[in-house]
Amino acid sequence: xxxxxxxxxxxxxxxxxxxxxxxxxxxxxxxxxxxxxxxxxxxxxxxxxxxxxxxxxxxxxxxxxxxxxxxxxxxxxxxxxxxxxxxxxxxxxxxxxxxxxxxxxxxxxxxxxxxxxxxxxxxxxxxxxxxxxxxxxxxxxxxxxxxxxxxxxxxxxxxxxxxxxxxxxxxxxxxxxxxxxxxxxxxxxxxxxxxxxxxxxxxxxxxxxxxxxxxxxxxxxxxxxxxxxxxxxxxxxxxxxxxxxxxxxxxxxxxxxxxxxxxxxxxxxxxxxxxxxxxxxxxxxxxxxxxxxxxxxxxxxxxxxxxxxxxxxxxxxxxxxxxxxxxxxxxxxxxxxxxxxxxxxxxxxxxxxxxxxxxxxxxxxxxxxxxxxxxxxxxxxxxxxxxxxxxxxxxxxxxxxxxxxxxxxxxxxxxxxxxxxxxxxxxxxxxxxxxxxxxxxxxxxxxxxxxxxxxxxxxxxxxxxxxxxxxxxxxxxxxxxxxxxxxx
Length: 488
What we know:
Radius of gyration: 25 Å
Strand content: 15-25%
CATH architecture of the largest domain: Alpha-Beta Barrel
CATH topology of the largest domain: TIM Barrel
Distance between the termini: 70 Å
């Protein structure tokens, strides 16, 4: 009996010595809906209204609905081309600033039912939503708060109309991954024939706390995007990239001359960077049109971004912990132009082929600062973002070595922190063992959901070391990968 007790005590001590507790969260952390947004990483924003048929960028609100007649419209072909480009979700501009609604709304007569599309029986929001469900793409909507057609814009009655438009969109098109909003509010317009300028106080007019409470109640899994952030913030430019140092945590500050932060009045000097140790987890979205503008223009055939240009934007958005929102513009036929389709397809091939094989999966991994067997180094190369390696609580500057029997050749390194526990790493470097000594080949700052380092000239080595140079707490990483970029 005594021997049995001693044996069980030994077994218990052995288990306790290996089963160290998980690290505690650090700072602001993402919500479940934000975690799903991070997994989406590349998606598209579709602009297609009477403005397309006017060959304009912004509609004035006076276009005759009868010009909206895309005779070859095929939502599945458009969404399919986006999926081939590696996009994982679609945001449809259900109503732009011109006020024309792409669904048969009860809130305004200026909607798709007045057009020849589907003989006045069409619902383009529904067709895009169904195409997304069929092709396993997430779906979201943008309904512009500014309405250059509605004569009630600028009055309290219009705010009720706008909220009812959101209620219709939230009620009739299934679960949405995002409710997208921008900061364009108030100015000149048609306004039912008044042809005047209407200005509003953006800090109070829409009552955003009340308006977005509708989103939270009716679409609890939808991330709210706005320029100063709610769930997702605007990166502060329409060129498609975040800052070299990009924090997912954020505390918005008032724009110059303002007393408080409100949508439409962001501090664009802060948004690209975020806020280290910010109050909330509000990662950045990097939006940029595939073409020169957000709407289709026939004379911009040669202005479509190439697959290589898109991959460069991918590195500077997704590769900096943000997401890439690519503007997609159908032509008047209701299809994507061939040059758009070709560019998307090429971009999708480059991303897919470049990150298909993680060369680290064949390496031997070692570290002196690991936390224990529940957080071992194999978690870095298991292909899952749900598992992670962690250093011990006392190790804020760990090093991890990768070694291979033969040289490997790579030009991409991707790191992912285990963001459910926060954004921890503040700087790190990568070294290769060369001529019997370690040589630094790259260094960077923030990591977060992803940090991708690209080398213009491929690196050849059989020993590589990652060293964390600064972190306020222990480190958690769900992936370290070495890859070779694919040429189209």
